[in-house]
Every structure is written in structure tokens, then in C-alpha cells.
Design a protein that fits this description.
7 strands; globular; four-stranded antiparallel sheet
Length: 76
């Protein structure tokens, strides 16, 4: 008998459109943000404005997550 391999969840990286650094991930219909020991997950329909944490970048990324259409990123 072999070990069971867990099913892979669909994940989408959210990257800064200016410098390309990872800002968050969208998985299982929610937005997951990690920085150091902090982790937060937001689910449902929402709009999020994320400012890049790199001091020399600080670009704004705006996301809109809807159940019907998935993710819409008007700033990318």
C-alpha cells in the first residue's frame, strides 16, 4: 500500500505589478496574506488594496474577488 497523496488545491499568486514580489495567494476562494508570524485569510466577495511592502517600491495593487467571476485585478 502506498501513502495517500493529498489533492493539490488551486492557488494563484498575487504579485506586485511593479517589482514582482509575492504579496498574497488566492486559494480555495479566499485571499491569504502572510508576513513574518502574521497570517490572515479573507473569504467571500471583497475588494482589497495592498501596498507593496518593499520600501523602494510601495506600489498599490487592487484586487476584487467575486464568486461569479473569480479575481479581477484592474491595476495589473
Amino acid at each position: 500500500m502506498g501513502a495517500r497523496v493529498p489533492e493539490h488545491r488551486h492557488e494563484t499568486d498575487v504579485r506586485c505589478h511593479e517589482c514582482g514580489i509575492l504579496l498574497a495567494r488566492i486559494r480555495d476562494g479566499g485571499l491569504c496574506i502572510r508576513r513574518g508570524d502574521l497570517q490572515t485569510t479573507v473569504t467571500g466577495e471583497f475588494q482589497a488594496s495592498i501596498v507593496c511592502y518593499r520600501p523602494r517600491c510601495r506600489a498599490l495593487t487592487v484586487l476584487r474577488l467575486t464568486r461569479d467571476r473569480g479575481t479581477n485585478n484592474p491595476k495589473a
